[in-house]
Amino acid sequence: MPRFRPKGLLAKSASEDLFRHTLSRLPTQYAKLAYLASLRDGNTGVYRHHGLSTSFGREEAATALRESHEAIFGEWLNLDFRERYDDLLKYFAGLESPRTEATRLWLRSKNYLSCIPASATRAERELFVLDLEALLGALSYEAVDARRDPASWPPE
User: Fold this and answer.
1) 93-110, pLDDT tens digit by residue?
2) What does DSSP assign to residue 145?
3) d(CA 101, CA 52)
4) CA-CA distance, 55 to 2, in Å (whole number)?
5) From CA 125, how far away is CA 114, in angstroms rounded?
6) 107-120 per-residue burial string, b: 16 or more CB within 10 A, e: under 16
7) How far apart (Å, rounded) are the C-alpha atoms in residues 86 and 92?
């Protein structure tokens, strides 16, 4: 199987390579979570990454991606609520869409559900969804509130 990087530049494992060359460069925990979730095939649940597969083989690459997804998901859940809020705020700051539009779309589409790894327990799934929806609501409300003219508040 051809390798894109000279052997000396390869990490010792697919997990190490994934962290060193990709995950460590993403600015937020949620960005890492969303990135890893995007590499999972929605029809099969199999994780795919061409570069990792080429360098380490399909099975090792898929395992590294799955395990990293599970680990980052666990790390996200272990953040306290304020840390999750700040992380998500920073994530939204990096998007091209205005935060109010993005939060509204997220709440309507529920695309964030794809960030939950297949191995997550029911309690983990519920915690993730409830907290994320509360965070999105707060971010959405805060963005709308910031646009109001302070002189016109409160309404008469």
Assistant:
1) 999 988 888 999 999 999
2) H
3) 34
4) 8
5) 11
6) eeeeebeebbbeeb
7) 10
